[in-house]
Amino acid sequence: MDIKDRIIEKAGELFFEYGIKNISMDELASSLGISKRTIYENFKDKEDILRFLITKLSNERNKIFKEFLEEGLNVVEIFIKVIEIQMDMPVSSAKFIQDIYKYYPKITKLLQENIEKNNEFLQNFLLKGIGQGYIREDLNVEVTAFLVEESTYTYIRASYMEKPPFSFSDLFYTMMINFVRGISTEKGIKIIDAHLENKKNLN
């Protein structure tokens, strides 16, 4: 991993946990064991780092979906795999999102553009699932795509809880796996139930 990627990755970890405004360039440099000058040799400022981070996360998400589609997996199988991958990824705090919308209008615009692109992709993805016979034909794909995107903020908001009685991974998994099951046909439900049974046996 080159220095630029290292900076983006560490910044993401710190921004997600503490918010953007709470992390100074000095703290970022110290956590990486490099000089602040090295950071400024690679990025103009904190907003520049944030822009690269948001773009990187969006590209990684698109790459995952593309790879699974190329493998020939059906829509429900892809949903399950993406949910499992997401469970292992760091959860951003509500402060992270709040800081973006409050202090970084250009990044807010970038986020909104990404959401629109993701929404369009999800609608087409759901239509593909309908065509495959795994997603219900009566589904309102526009509303469903919107709900998938909005579900992200449910577990971000849960970060406000002082002592949640569950892990964020469990919250995300339970929420999303049941959501996908709810929009699936009988054929899709069989795949999800087999996955749930297998997961139960492993535990």
Give the helices and strands as they follow along the chain.
HHHHHHHHHH
* Global structural class: mainly alpha
**Rg from alpha-carbon coordinates:** 19 Å
Mean pLDDT figure: 92
- Considering DSSP H and I runs of 4 or more, what fraction of the residues is helical? over 70%
Alpha-carbon distance between the two ends: 34 Å
In CATH, the topology is named Tetracycline Repressor, domain 2
Low-confidence stretches: none
Largest sheet: none
> How many structural domains does the protein architecture include?
1
Top-tier CATH class: Mainly Alpha
Which descriptor suits the 3D outline?
A: elongated
Strand content: under 5%
CATH architecture grouping: Orthogonal Bundle
Task: Compute the number of strand runs.
Answer: 0
CATH superfamily: Tetracycline Repressor, domain 2
* H/I helix tally: 10
How does this model look, in words?
- It contains 10 helices and no strands.
- The chain is mainly α.
- The radius of gyration is 19 Å and the shape is elongated.
- The protein has one domain (60-202): Tetracycline Repressor, domain 2 (Orthogonal Bundle), CATH 1.10.357.
Keywords:
single chain; 203 residues; mainly alpha; Tetracycline Repressor, domain 2; 77% helix; elongated
Write the layout of secondary structure elements.
Blueprint: H1 3-18, H2 25-32, H3 36-42, H4 46-70, H5 75-87, H6 94-103, H7 105-132, H8 141-157, H9 168-183, H10 186-202
Helix pairs in contact: 1-2, 1-4, 4-7, 5-9, 7-8, 8-9, 9-10
